[in-house]
């Protein structure tokens, strides 16, 4: 495969990445100082600029055809929306991470009802939402100027936004979820429209919420709130499609996963996997894969928890499935033979011409546990090596 990508190649890229990258050591050091009030906002901003220059240069050096800024300006990937809008209640304190499990290979999620940032926790609104600052646009404007290859940007799915909206306490502002999502779609389209005007031609929608529809605990929570999960999913698919409608010449991907927490194994000191949800794609694939209008489906497939490749049989002919076979939750490097075998297994359900390869999720970011940075780059090099062997 070519190591460069023109705008017309983006839909058919054989390799991809999800967005978040390990924060370089220099940025982590300044960020720790910032949290202790030993460094100021301007110093942190300069460290972010330097870190983004660093990760873009590393991506280009190994020949990656599509780049990201590593989401290194964000503390959490969901800030693409939560930090862009005004209207959510802003708690005085953040207790959302209290009591989170530290056990490896276990479910680990924060208390969504505790005080905490919007979207990361279920917050009510105090006024109708409005776009205050186009966060993805400002990110793209910086990274695209220093990159020699196309830069992709991640934007949050209406499905995730709706699941983290406390509609019961917000009826004075929005009488129902349809009214709320109408504003979410309008704002998201404005964010995307401004990105497109700035030259961005690959936009990824982060939609980890869809796996809630196969996760028993998540389904029980919806029903306990008086929601119909089937109606929630129907509404979300329509909203996600409305967000991307009419942007000709732009490649849209949508990323589905079951959460990306990591912890440190006390016995070995190594980074180990956790997750937020359980369940396989089988229960939602026929409906979701066929109805979503996105060009590329980025799917988590890095371990047995992902289930089989059988649901890929529901993917329409025109779509590309990006197999997230390379884990971001352990430093161990996947073998070339294993990756080729897994792609071969997937091709029994979807032609290899409709497949691509990527990490299973983001590698971490500014405020999270992540594997060592050099292990991350080795994984990207292995992805490129595998792609050359499989697709030529």
Instruction: Give the structural class.
Output: alpha/beta
| Overall tally of domains | 1
Order of helical and strand elements: HHHEEHEHHEHHEEEHEEHEH
This entry's quaternary arrangement is single chain
CATH class: Alpha Beta
Mean of pLDDT: 94
Number of strands: 10
By CATH, the topology is TIM Barrel
Helix content: 25-40%
CA distance, first residue to last residue:
5 Å
CATH architecture title: Alpha-Beta Barrel
Report on the structure:
The protein has 392 residues and is α/β, with parallel strands linked by helices. It has one domain (7-391): TIM Barrel, CATH 3.20.20. The protein has helices spanning 25-35, 41-61, 79-82, 135-146, 158-163, 177-197, 216-224, 229-244, 282-291, 336-346, 373-391; strands spanning 85-88, 125-131, 153-156, 202-206, 251-256, 262-264, 271-273, 296-300, 320-326, 355-359. The strands form 3 sheets. It has a 6-stranded parallel sheet. Strands 1-2 form a two-stranded antiparallel ribbon. α10 links the parallel β9 and β10. α4 (135-146) packs parallel to α6 and α6 runs parallel beside α8 (229-244). The radius of gyration is 20 Å and the shape is globular.
